[in-house]
Amino acid sequence: MMNNTSKKPFNFPPGTVIRGKWYKQIYTIVKELGYGANGIVYLVQGAAGYLALKMSDSNVSITSEVNVLKSFSKVQGTPLGPKLHQVDDWETRGQIIHFYVMEYIQGVNLLHFVQSKGPSWTGVLIAQLLSDLERIHREGWVFGDLKPENLIVTGPPYRIRCIDVGGTTIQGRAIKEFTEFFDRGYWLGGSRKAEPTYDLFSVAMILINLAYPQRFNKTGTGNIQQLRKAVAAKDQLHKFQSAIEKALEGDFRSADEMRNHLLQGISHGGNTAGATGRTKKAPSSASAPSSQRSRIQQQKRKKSSHFLETVMVIMIVSMLYILYIYGELM
């Protein structure tokens, strides 16, 4: 769930009882979920069932993350991050520990889900992620530390959610937390200023990571050119190639624009406008010899096939959203 490269801030065993100082709610630790520089997260059981509890010795970190979750709760629809339940302090052994309790999101992380279900799910889930990012960006936030480890697929109906909002930053400020492989500064692709294009760069790197589960190291200066070669080397990324490259270059103005381009690439098998250069005008069937007429007929059949593929993609995406909405209403 979180970056485990830092020293563990707390170490409370299962069965430990946490009693809120102000609201008197009781939570019993079930197990540790993960820890990082800003605190540790436990699975706990309380009056409302299983929840995730994050504690920290830094009230500033807790307050910052709580503000993010509160902002996310104002966004229409299911929030990308967990729902906030309560904020309190715990007094133990003469120490005050700050904590907040949030929704426990159960599921499989994005990388494991795609490996299990197959790469055909990649486009649908990334399109869903981009829709959520668009709503967050409109509220003035940038997610920052986007990576498959922080993205959980719940369901069915399948839905992508984020389990760690620690890197979420107000637009215009410096990114608070990042993971090198998904960071555009690391790949010399731009600054670490919190802006929508930073998140979209990370989405492109998530697509690359899904095709390279073990990731890869930066070679030499390690720049966008290395990433372009990695994308071109994987057939799995062909239909996403144009969207990935434009996101790496910072060419998209919004998450919605990237989502539309991504879906267009899927429906056309990767040959989106501008990705394959100019197309030559075909001769008319009246003036073309028989061999050319045959090629023209083949091209027409291909266009018809592409149209049917587009219809099928739209139908599949529509059905998945219908199932999601039905699941939300149940």
Major sheet attributes: 6 strands, antiparallel
User: What count of structural domains?
Assistant: 3
CATH C-level class of the largest domain: Mainly Alpha
Structural class based on helices, strands and sheet pairing: alpha+beta
**Percent in helix:** 25-40%
Morphology: globular
Oligomer: single chain
- The N- to C-terminal Cα distance equals 28 Å
Strand order of the largest sheet: 1-2-3-4-6-5
Number of helices: 8
What CATH architecture label of the largest domain applies?
Orthogonal Bundle
Number of strands: 11
CATH topology of the largest domain: Transferase(Phosphotransferase), domain 1
CATH homologous superfamily assignment of the largest domain: Transferase(Phosphotransferase) domain 1
Mean pLDDT value:
85
Give the amount of beta strand, in percent.
15-25%
**Computed Rg:** 23 Å
Order of helices and strands: EEEEHEEEHHEEEEHHHHH
Q: Report low-confidence residues grouped into runs of 5 or more.
A: 271-292
In short:
With 330 residues, this protein is of the alpha+beta class. It has helices at residues 59-73, 110-117, 122-138, 196-211, 224-232, 241-248, 255-267, 290-329, and strands at 17-19, 26-36, 39-46, 49-56, 84-92, 95-103, 108-109, 141-142, 151-154, 159-162, 169-170. The chain has a six-stranded antiparallel beta sheet with strand order 1-2-3-4-6-5, with helices on one face. It has a three-stranded antiparallel beta sheet with strand order 7-9-10. It has a two-stranded antiparallel sheet with strand order 8-11.
